[in-house]
Automatic annotation (TrEMBL):
The keyword Membrane belongs to this UniProt entry's keyword annotation: no
Segments forming domain 3-hydroxyacyl-CoA dehydrogenase C-terminal: 208-304
Protein name per UniProt: 3-hydroxyacyl-CoA dehydrogenase
Stated family: Belongs to the 3-hydroxyacyl-CoA dehydrogenase family.
GO biological process: one example: fatty acid beta-oxidation
Record-listed NAD(+) binding positions: 27-32, 50, 114, 119, 141, 165, 296
Length: 306
């Protein structure tokens, strides 16, 4: 599958500061499609690469729906501007099942499964396929950037770009500096993040980076309180929403982000830090084993109407 949705792209021969104009996103899931959408909205030409044609088709439909919502919000009751906004952004997006089709770009962002060996295999391949100027970045939420890029040669042009779900709505982008990233690459990544409308923060390659390192203990303790029967799930969430002015309670948030994702993040944090707060939680393990992953499966801590 190699379906061109837009015009022929002009690829730059070198990438300088503030000059990322062509982007490939590897992974057509929620995160990948969201990253592709915000880049296309910002005027950049984007290729989404995924091995599964059905995921690419789903990503295209999702992006189209999201673009329509954004256009209606921005342009309100002006049908011509709404149509133009959606058409122009859509035409900047290309999809393919072949990684080679996305190699000749300024930036590649990986948004695939959170497994170290799978990510390493992908980046080792990209390192050989992509031109020398291409910056490679991982959207991992907690795996070490240094470990992911251990086998590549361009360690100076490799780092982390951790987005938050849903990407078109969440304004934050964590820019992760590995041990070997160059200042030019770091500045280019920061500038690109700002160009797609994100507020960028920087963190070194430390377990969980900023947000998940802080969110992990909060989420874990909320889960343990519910598991012990200290308080109902509703009261735990209401307590944090009204007592701490959080927009969502910790258990609602866990269901929203996915209990499987929560389990994985806690597992990585425990492996790296050995801190007891990150130890496995029997309730969380049970729900994940039963396939009750939160909103995306219709049930997690809470039950949801489809």
């Amino acid at each position: 599958m190699n379906k061109l949705l837009g015009f022929t792209r002009n690829f730059s021969n070198s990438v300088s500061l503030n000059a990322i104009k062509t982007v490939t996103v590897v992974g057509g899931g929620l995160m990948g499609s969201g990253i592709a959408q915000v880049a296309a909205q910002a005027g950049q030409n984007v290729t989404i690469v995924d091995l599964k044609p059905e995921l690419l088709e789903k990503a295209q439909k999702s992006i189209q729906n999201n673009l329509n919502r954004v256009a209606r919000k921005v342009h309100k009751d002006d049908p011509s501007k709404i149509e133009s906004f959606v058409k122009e952004a859509s035409e900047r997006i290309k999809v393919s099942t072949n990684i080679e089709d996305g190699a000749n770009v300024d930036l590649v962002v990986e948004a695939i499964v959170e497994k170290l060996d799978v990510k390493q295999e992908l980046f080792n391949k990209l390192d050989k396929l992509c031109p020398e100027h291409t910056i490679l970045a991982s959207n991992t939420s907690s795996i070490s950037i240094n470990e992911i890029g251990a086998g590549i040669k361009r360690k100076d042009r490799f780092g982390g770009l951790h987005f938050f779900n849903p990407v078109p709505v969440m304004r934050l982008l964590e820019v992760i500096k590995g041990d070997h990233i160059s200042e030019e690459t770091y500045q280019a990544m920061m500038s690109w993040g700002k160009s797609i409308g994100k507020t960028c923060i920087t963190c070194k390659d430390t377990p969980g980076f900023v947000v998940n390192r802080l969110l992990g203990p909060y989420s874990a303790e909320a889960m343990r309180m519910y598991e012990r029967g200290d308080a109902s799930k509703e009261d735990i969430d209401i307590g944090m929403k009204l007592g701490a002015s959080y927009p969502m309670g910790p258990l609602e948030l866990a269901d929203y982000t996915g209990l499987d994702t929560n389990k994985f993040v806690l597992q990585v944090l425990y492996e790296k830090t050995k801190h007891p707060v990150f130890k496995p939680i029997p309730l969380l393990d049970k729900l994940v084993a039963e396939g009750k992953l939160g909103i995306k499966t219709g049930e997690g801590i809470y039950k949801y109407k489809k």
